[in-house]
Amino acid sequence: MREEAFRVEQEQERYAPHVRPINEMVDILRDEDGRGWMPHVAPWHGGAEARVLSVLRDPGPKTQEGAGSGFLCVENDDPTAELQAQIFEEAGIAPRDVTPWNAYPWYINRSPNAAELQAGAEVLKQLLGLMPKAEVVLLQGNEAQDVWRRLLKTSPEAVRGRTLEVVSTYHPGRQALFVRDPEERARRAQHRIDAYQKVGDALRGTGGQL
Protein backbone atom coordinates (compact mmCIF):
# COMPACT_ATOMS: atom_id res chain seq x y z
CA MET A 1 0.00 0.00 0.00
CA ARG A 2 3.05 2.25 0.20
CA GLU A 3 3.09 2.14 -3.61
CA GLU A 4 0.57 4.62 -5.02
CA ALA A 5 -0.23 2.53 -8.13
CA PHE A 6 -1.16 -0.49 -6.01
CA ARG A 7 -3.23 1.59 -3.60
CA VAL A 8 -5.10 3.31 -6.44
CA GLU A 9 -5.83 -0.06 -8.01
CA GLN A 10 -7.34 -1.29 -4.74
CA GLU A 11 -9.49 1.83 -4.49
CA GLN A 12 -10.72 1.48 -8.05
CA GLU A 13 -11.65 -2.18 -7.49
CA ARG A 14 -13.31 -1.57 -4.13
CA TYR A 15 -16.64 -2.93 -5.43
CA ALA A 16 -15.31 -5.61 -7.76
CA PRO A 17 -17.74 -8.57 -7.89
CA HIS A 18 -15.77 -10.79 -5.49
CA VAL A 19 -15.62 -8.16 -2.72
CA ARG A 20 -18.81 -6.20 -3.43
CA PRO A 21 -21.09 -8.13 -1.02
CA ILE A 22 -18.66 -7.69 1.89
CA ASN A 23 -17.81 -4.07 1.21
CA GLU A 24 -21.46 -3.16 0.79
CA MET A 25 -22.06 -4.78 4.19
CA VAL A 26 -19.25 -2.61 5.58
CA ASP A 27 -20.93 0.50 4.15
CA ILE A 28 -24.12 -0.37 6.02
CA LEU A 29 -22.32 -1.15 9.28
CA ARG A 30 -20.17 2.00 9.34
CA ASP A 31 -21.18 4.15 12.28
CA GLU A 32 -23.99 1.76 13.18
CA ASP A 33 -25.15 2.60 16.72
CA GLY A 34 -22.46 5.25 16.81
CA ARG A 35 -19.66 2.69 16.69
CA GLY A 36 -17.69 4.66 14.14
CA TRP A 37 -15.67 3.77 11.10
CA MET A 38 -14.91 0.35 9.57
CA PRO A 39 -12.38 -0.45 6.82
CA HIS A 40 -13.29 -2.24 3.61
CA VAL A 41 -11.68 -5.53 2.56
CA ALA A 42 -9.07 -4.93 -0.14
CA PRO A 43 -9.89 -6.53 -3.52
CA TRP A 44 -6.35 -7.99 -3.34
CA HIS A 45 -8.05 -10.64 -1.21
CA GLY A 46 -10.69 -13.23 -2.03
CA GLY A 47 -13.69 -11.51 -0.50
CA ALA A 48 -16.86 -13.57 -0.80
CA GLU A 49 -15.00 -16.22 -2.83
CA ALA A 50 -12.20 -16.84 -0.32
CA ARG A 51 -11.61 -20.28 1.16
CA VAL A 52 -10.01 -18.90 4.34
CA LEU A 53 -11.44 -16.41 6.83
CA SER A 54 -8.63 -14.87 8.88
CA VAL A 55 -9.71 -13.10 12.07
CA LEU A 56 -7.55 -10.71 14.13
CA ARG A 57 -8.52 -8.40 17.03
CA ASP A 58 -9.42 -4.97 15.61
CA PRO A 59 -8.38 -2.81 12.64
CA GLY A 60 -4.97 -1.19 13.05
CA PRO A 61 -4.04 2.46 12.32
CA LYS A 62 -2.82 1.61 8.81
CA THR A 63 -6.35 0.54 7.84
CA GLN A 64 -7.64 4.09 8.33
CA GLU A 65 -8.36 6.31 5.36
CA GLY A 66 -5.89 9.14 5.20
CA ALA A 67 -3.52 7.75 7.83
CA GLY A 68 -3.42 4.43 5.98
CA SER A 69 -4.99 2.55 3.10
CA GLY A 70 -8.63 2.40 4.16
CA PHE A 71 -8.53 -1.38 3.72
CA LEU A 72 -7.91 -4.61 5.55
CA CYS A 73 -4.97 -6.00 3.59
CA VAL A 74 -1.77 -7.97 4.15
CA GLU A 75 -0.07 -5.37 1.95
CA ASN A 76 -0.71 -2.57 4.45
CA ASP A 77 2.37 -0.69 5.58
CA ASP A 78 2.66 -2.11 9.10
CA PRO A 79 4.61 -4.94 10.80
CA THR A 80 1.57 -7.11 11.54
CA ALA A 81 0.43 -7.12 7.91
CA GLU A 82 3.99 -7.69 6.72
CA LEU A 83 4.44 -10.74 8.95
CA GLN A 84 1.12 -12.19 7.80
CA ALA A 85 2.02 -11.71 4.14
CA GLN A 86 5.36 -13.42 4.71
CA ILE A 87 4.01 -16.44 6.57
CA PHE A 88 1.04 -16.84 4.22
CA GLU A 89 3.44 -16.92 1.29
CA GLU A 90 5.74 -19.43 3.00
CA ALA A 91 2.71 -21.66 3.66
CA GLY A 92 1.63 -21.49 0.01
CA ILE A 93 -1.49 -19.43 0.75
CA ALA A 94 -2.29 -16.82 -1.90
CA PRO A 95 -3.90 -13.45 -1.01
CA ARG A 96 -7.01 -14.43 -2.98
CA ASP A 97 -7.37 -17.52 -0.77
CA VAL A 98 -7.99 -15.29 2.25
CA THR A 99 -10.44 -12.70 3.51
CA PRO A 100 -9.06 -10.70 6.45
CA TRP A 101 -11.43 -9.66 9.24
CA ASN A 102 -11.47 -8.65 12.91
CA ALA A 103 -13.20 -9.79 16.08
CA TYR A 104 -14.37 -6.20 16.48
CA PRO A 105 -14.45 -4.81 12.92
CA TRP A 106 -14.94 -1.12 13.81
CA TYR A 107 -11.87 1.03 14.36
CA ILE A 108 -11.04 1.46 18.07
CA ASN A 109 -7.29 0.66 18.22
CA ARG A 110 -7.59 -1.02 21.62
CA SER A 111 -8.74 -4.32 23.03
CA PRO A 112 -12.54 -4.68 22.61
CA ASN A 113 -14.67 -5.34 25.69
CA ALA A 114 -17.20 -8.15 26.10
CA ALA A 115 -20.13 -6.16 24.70
CA GLU A 116 -18.06 -5.14 21.69
CA LEU A 117 -17.01 -8.72 21.05
CA GLN A 118 -20.67 -9.75 21.15
CA ALA A 119 -21.40 -7.11 18.51
CA GLY A 120 -18.49 -8.48 16.52
CA ALA A 121 -19.98 -11.97 16.71
CA GLU A 122 -23.19 -10.70 15.12
CA VAL A 123 -21.22 -9.21 12.23
CA LEU A 124 -19.16 -12.38 11.90
CA LYS A 125 -22.40 -14.29 11.43
CA GLN A 126 -23.32 -11.97 8.55
CA LEU A 127 -19.88 -12.31 7.02
CA LEU A 128 -19.95 -16.10 7.05
CA GLY A 129 -23.26 -15.94 5.24
CA LEU A 130 -21.48 -14.04 2.44
CA MET A 131 -18.64 -16.57 2.18
CA PRO A 132 -20.13 -19.86 0.91
CA LYS A 133 -16.72 -21.20 -0.19
CA ALA A 134 -15.04 -20.76 3.19
CA GLU A 135 -13.34 -23.96 4.38
CA VAL A 136 -10.95 -22.73 7.08
CA VAL A 137 -11.28 -20.15 9.85
CA LEU A 138 -7.93 -18.86 11.17
CA LEU A 139 -8.33 -17.32 14.62
CA GLN A 140 -5.32 -15.22 15.54
CA GLY A 141 -5.23 -14.09 19.16
CA ASN A 142 -7.46 -14.33 22.23
CA GLU A 143 -10.12 -11.90 20.99
CA ALA A 144 -10.53 -13.77 17.70
CA GLN A 145 -10.96 -17.03 19.60
CA ASP A 146 -13.37 -15.35 22.02
CA VAL A 147 -15.59 -13.96 19.27
CA TRP A 148 -15.74 -17.38 17.60
CA ARG A 149 -16.93 -18.98 20.85
CA ARG A 150 -19.58 -16.28 21.14
CA LEU A 151 -20.73 -16.95 17.59
CA LEU A 152 -21.07 -20.68 18.23
CA LYS A 153 -23.01 -20.03 21.45
CA THR A 154 -25.43 -17.38 20.21
CA SER A 155 -25.72 -18.25 16.51
CA PRO A 156 -24.92 -21.93 15.99
CA GLU A 157 -26.99 -21.87 12.81
CA ALA A 158 -24.22 -19.80 11.22
CA VAL A 159 -22.03 -22.91 10.93
CA ARG A 160 -24.70 -25.64 10.88
CA GLY A 161 -24.35 -27.83 7.82
CA ARG A 162 -20.93 -26.41 6.96
CA THR A 163 -17.55 -28.07 7.17
CA LEU A 164 -15.21 -25.47 8.61
CA GLU A 165 -11.77 -26.31 9.92
CA VAL A 166 -10.89 -23.94 12.75
CA VAL A 167 -7.21 -23.18 13.37
CA SER A 168 -6.24 -21.09 16.41
CA THR A 169 -2.91 -19.41 17.11
CA TYR A 170 -1.31 -16.28 18.50
CA HIS A 171 -1.85 -12.80 17.10
CA PRO A 172 0.79 -11.82 14.50
CA GLY A 173 1.51 -8.55 16.29
CA ARG A 174 4.63 -7.98 18.37
CA GLN A 175 2.73 -7.96 21.65
CA ALA A 176 2.05 -11.69 21.37
CA LEU A 177 5.77 -12.25 21.93
CA PHE A 178 6.09 -9.88 24.91
CA VAL A 179 7.07 -12.62 27.39
CA ARG A 180 10.25 -12.92 29.45
CA ASP A 181 11.04 -16.53 28.64
CA PRO A 182 12.93 -16.72 25.30
CA GLU A 183 11.87 -20.34 24.83
CA GLU A 184 8.22 -19.32 25.20
CA ARG A 185 8.70 -16.52 22.66
CA ALA A 186 10.21 -18.98 20.23
CA ARG A 187 7.39 -21.46 20.86
CA ARG A 188 4.74 -18.84 20.14
CA ALA A 189 6.46 -17.67 16.97
CA GLN A 190 6.73 -21.25 15.74
CA HIS A 191 3.11 -21.93 16.66
CA ARG A 192 2.03 -19.13 14.32
CA ILE A 193 4.11 -20.57 11.50
CA ASP A 194 2.71 -24.05 12.12
CA ALA A 195 -0.85 -22.71 12.17
CA TYR A 196 -0.45 -21.03 8.79
CA GLN A 197 1.06 -24.22 7.44
CA LYS A 198 -1.94 -26.16 8.71
CA VAL A 199 -4.23 -23.75 6.85
CA GLY A 200 -2.19 -24.27 3.69
CA ASP A 201 -2.33 -28.03 4.15
CA ALA A 202 -6.12 -27.86 4.56
CA LEU A 203 -6.46 -25.95 1.29
CA ARG A 204 -4.31 -28.55 -0.46
CA GLY A 205 -6.26 -31.37 1.18
CA THR A 206 -3.23 -32.81 2.98
CA GLY A 207 -4.48 -32.24 6.53
CA GLY A 208 -2.17 -32.42 9.53
CA GLN A 209 -2.21 -31.89 13.28
CA LEU A 210 -1.23 -28.77 15.21
Which helices and strands occur, and which strands form pairs?
Layout: H1 4-12, H2 20-29, E1 40-41, E2 52-56, E3 71-72, H3 79-90, E4 98-102, H4 114-129, E5 136-140, H5 142-154, E6 165-169, H6 182-204
Parallel strand pairs: 1-3, 2-4, 2-5, 5-6
Organism: Streptomyces spororaveus
Protein name: Uracil-DNA glycosylase-like domain-containing protein
Pfam families: UDG
Describe this structure in words.
40% of the residues lie in helices and 11% in strands. It is an alpha/beta fold and 210 residues long. It has one domain: Uracil-DNA glycosylase-like domain (Uracil-DNA Glycosylase, subunit E, 3-Layer(aba) Sandwich). Helix 5 links the parallel strand 5 and strand 6. The longest helix has 23 residues. The radius of gyration is 16 Å and the shape is globular.
Return the CATH architecture: 3-Layer(aba) Sandwich
- Count structural domains: 1
User: Number of DSSP helices?
Assistant: 6
Q: Low-confidence parts, pLDDT < 50 over ≥5 residues? A: none
State the order of secondary-structure elements, H for helix, E for strand.
HHEEEHEHEHEH
Q: What is the mean predicted local confidence, pLDDT? A: 93
Assign the CATH superfamily.
Uracil-DNA glycosylase-like domain
- List the strand order in the largest sheet: 4-2-5-6
| Distance linking N and C termini | 33 Å
State which percent range the strand residues make up: 5-15%
Question: From the helix content, strand content and strand pairing, which structural class follows?
Answer: alpha/beta
Number of strands: 6
Shape: globular
User: What is the subunit organization of this protein?
Assistant: single chain
- CATH fold-level name: Uracil-DNA Glycosylase, subunit E
Q: What's the gyration radius in Å? A: 16 Å
CATH class: Alpha Beta
Largest sheet: 4 strands, parallel
What percent of the residues sit in helical stretches (DSSP H or I)? Answer: 25-40%
